[in-house]
Batch of 3 targets.
Target 1
Amino acid sequence: MSVESFRCLETDLSASYAKVEDINNQICALLKVSLPISGVEFTGTGLESYEQRTGEYWVFVSPGMKFITIKHRDFHPIRNYAFPQRIESARTYEMVVKVDAIPQPIDSASMMSAMEQKLLEMEQRLGELISNQNAQQAPTPQPNQVIPPSQPLIKNNPSQFKLLKTLNCKGVQTISYSPDGRKFAAGRRDKIIEIRDANTYKCLKKLYVGCPVYNLAYSPDGTKIASADNEIIEIWDVNTGNCLKTWRADMGYCASFAWSPDGKRIVSTTNNEAVNIWDVNTGRLLRKLQLKNTVEELLFSPDGSNIVIIASDIIKLDANTFELLHINDEQYISTNGCGSYSPDGSKITAGNYTDEIKIWDANTLRCIQTLKGHSSSYEKKKPIDVGFVFYSPDGTKIMSSIRDCNIKIWDANKGECLQTLVDHTEYVISGSWSPDGRKFVSASYDETIKIWGCE
């Protein structure tokens, strides 16, 4: 299945007449999906309410939702389709879905024979890889060198990560460890931030915020949490649960934000191509920079002296004066929330819409390495904001997930893939390292949080 078209039906009042409300008592939008087959499932709408009509489905969607997943047992699913326009309350939209061919009955005996042959070939190939593993030398990265995908570590390697715990968390969108590693926070679509004990995984506190939480981050001292939805940024006191500051993201939705290392400022970007620096204590806008391209990611350098902007090019600014220090116009496009500085500030890494991970020299902004290994089922021409790329706290590893269900652990120096973790069943959307680097947490559209640990 694939989406042929999407549009707003300006004169169609069906959504207003239906008056279906979500859990926040907002009138839902109505998505009329043209799809002439039965047995279709729709998820990710915030309500999971739909009904089949003649030649189409009526799917009710909570206002502000960004994605929808369409599944059928006989066809390849459409996973996390990004709505090309904002979903508004009581509006009606039309989506035309194309089904290439009706599946034909499968001969079970032929299918089993083909599967057995495929398994045999896979076993033979795996044996060759294991036998040759010790004989292979890791390539020395050269400037702009592309490192091909590597195999996971062999079993019983002492640095291998294992799944420790799976937690159900409906509507989870973002996750972050506290700076002391004792807690982690998870932001949900239903306007709740859960704070959990990092060892027992018990929920210690819930913050009932004013908007769906698509981004969150602890302040460097761990006393505050910044959260953002499409339009609002809020600062929360972790201990009392009180909202300290609220401001709107400059007439557009907040695509990305980052704390300064001293915790006194937040830099944010919006879809109207503006970059803002805010005073956390007063909520006052300190500086504003208007760009010509939509900003996908913002990063403070570890020492707080620079801000890096990743858009259609890469820009480095002085964090105090906004003076342009360097620009690389290699036409690199990053996914939202998908990049980080190395702890020593010497490198920058981010993922892109072609499922690659780029590593740049932080001083020159020159690309020094490209890692390949993720494989997205999205069409390459459809940018989807899913995933993350983070250096470990000691800078020796990179954790990544780019538009697929897998998490990869890389050797940050050699560019080798050390391990691939495949336990999530939907796209992985957020992740965070523990401060000691021996654990990390991940959140997925399968509505689970997974905690991973190193032996």
Target 2
Amino acid sequence: MNQNGFIIKNTFCEIVQSKKKADELPWQLLQAQEWERLKDCLGNMDMFQMLMTEEKRYELLGYCLTIGNRYDMVEVYNKTLVQYEGRKNQETCTYYLDRTAYFFNLNARYSAAEPLYKRALKIYEKVLGPRHPKTVQCRKNLEHCKG
């Protein structure tokens, strides 16, 4: 039990990523003021992807803003991306780079989004070619960060 009287079972935290977990765990950690655990939860790329949907991304933003004075979520996500780049396939890593950059872009964190877009664009151009829709969209997003 933490200082606020909340108990969050570790077994719930350890279950495989699911919609139910994405719906409930961050909120429970927020209510319990379990800041470090919330940071770790949000910093998990699988959880991030589940929260980066059209319907949930502003909830994700709210969580990040709430813990933003305690943790630099840009740093958290950048560290996580570096770890994933060594373990995941190139397509998955590029997707994570692009989605994380998009999240930073939505939140007017352009200086954080730009290097991620550049890394994703480099891979897209190499793997998919310069005219592929994903490459074109990534280039447009990068230009938006610069301009």
Target 3
Amino acid sequence: MTLDEIISNAEFCANEYKKFSEIAPERSLTFKKYEEDHRQLAEWLRELKQYRESTLPANDWIPVSEGLPEVNGWYQCTVILNDLPRTMELFYKNGKWLDNRRINMFDTYDIFGYGNTKEKHKLSYQELISEFEWSQVVIAWKPLSQPYMAESEKDEISF
């Protein structure tokens, strides 16, 4: 059940107990107490709902079904791993999600175009890419968050 359904159910029960107290006056004190309890429960649940809506961060995830990044680079991704959603950073390049954790740092620099090594890899570029192409399901992505920047001189970090 959703929170809205539970609130609606509590209000329905309160209204039913009000009717019962009119139908059976000999038990009206009991039914009025139940009515008050259910109205209080509905009120608390509305407050909870309002609190949750005001404190939850905006959903800034972009479903893959709505589009892929236009710029190659690192992104925070939601992936399905062992049938469960997980988040991880993946590199997006030319329509593919890449996970560089399975190769060494120097290969990564060369593949992503940041290296200046003169040594040739034993594997071709395509073979190396296929070794660490992310084969799990990416369902959503978002740009990486930016590091903290001080808004005023009081907040500046000094070492």
